[in-house]
Structure formats: structure tokens, C-alpha cells
Write a structure and sequence with these properties.
The protein is of the alpha+beta class and about 160 residues long. The chain contains 4 helices and 5 strands; from the N terminus they run αββααββαβ. It has a single domain (about 10-145), classed as 2-Layer Sandwich (Beta-Lactamase). The chain has helices at about 10-25, 50-70, 70-85, 130-140, and strands spanning about 30-35, 40-45, 105-110, 110-120, 145.
């Protein structure tokens, strides 16, 4: 039997609470989304006054990070290499949820891809960018988690 791991609802809520607290303190209105290892929605929210399009952007970023097993800044590097070979970009990937927008992190625990987190609507400025808030969420997960802008590869684990 294949062993799989995922972020839990408790971990997702911890990420969201940390990001919302930081955004409130810094005077930002953001949206944040957490997905599982299959890029399926676990939890998310958008702050009062932030249009829904930011929620959709955060979801697409988290989805993309989990689907590609790397942070969204790595996906744009990957796309640049693909473009050199004649590919036409994300439209060639046949998945309208995929994006190269910044602010999505692929979350890894040990050698397992466990999910993704993303923020949209940070607006930039010192400590107020989408990456800044995504890092706050990542840090809220605690020890034992990593993320990377290169594609994560692992050997499947099986039990009897």
C-alpha cells in the first residue's frame, strides 16, 4: 500500500491564523489558501474588503505549487526553460488552474510532498508582499517542513 502524507486541517488553520494576524498588524488585506498534496483545497480565507479574485489567485498559486512540487517562483523558471524549447506557456499544460504568479509554496515534510500554501493581495512594500506573507504561514508550520523552487522528487514508500 502506498504511504501518503498531507497537511492537516489543524496545520492549515495555523497557517491561516498566522497570515491573517500578520496582515492585520501590517495593514494589509489578503487572501490565503492551503491545499493538500494533491492540490485539493483544505482551507482558506480572504479578509474583509478584499475582492474574491484574490481568493481565486491564492488558490491557483497554492494549487500550482502542490501540482508542480515546487514554489511558484520555480515554476516560472521551469516555464522559461520550456519556452526556449518552443512551448507556449501554461496554456500548453492543459490545466486552467496552473499559474506562474508569485506567492505559492510547495510544502515538504521529510521526503514527502504534503501540500501548498499561497497568499494573494499583499500589494508589496517592505514586509507586505505575497512572498512575505506566505513565509509567515510557512513559519507557522514549525520544524520539519521545507519548501523549494526546484521540483521535489521522492521515492514512493509502501507498506504491506
Amino acid at each position: 500500500m502506498l504511504v501518503q502524507k498531507s497537511l492537516s486541517l489543524e496545520e492549515a488553520n495555523r497557517v491561516i491564523e498566522a497570515v491573517i494576524a500578520a496582515a492585520t498588524e501590517r495593514g494589509s488585506q489578503i487572501a490565503v489558501v492551503v491545499v493538500d498534496q494533491h492540490a485539493d483545497f483544505i482551507a482558506g480565507c480572504r479578509m474583509d474588503g478584499r475582492p474574491y479574485r484574490f481568493m481565486k489567485a491564492a488558490w491557483r498559486k497554492a494549487y500550482s505549487a502542490a501540482a508542480f512540487d515546487m514554489d511558484t517562483n520555480g515554476i516560472i523558471k521551469f516555464w522559461d526553460r520550456q519556452a526556449e524549447e518552443g512551448h507556449r506557456g501554461p496554456a500548453d499544460w492543459n490545466d486552467s488552474m496552473l499559474t506562474t504568479l508569485p506567492g505559492g509554496m510547495a510544502i515538504i515534510s521529510g521526503d514527502k510532498m504534503v501540500g501548498g500554501i499561497a497568499v494573494a493581495g499583499g500589494g508589496g512594500g517592505e514586509g507586505k508582499g505575497d512572498w512575505d506573507y506566505a513565509q509567515v504561514g510557512f513559519d507557522a508550520l514549525g520544524k520539519g517542513f521545507t519548501h523549494s523552487d526546484t521540483m521535489h522528487r521522492y521515492v514512493p514508500e509502501y507498506t504491506d
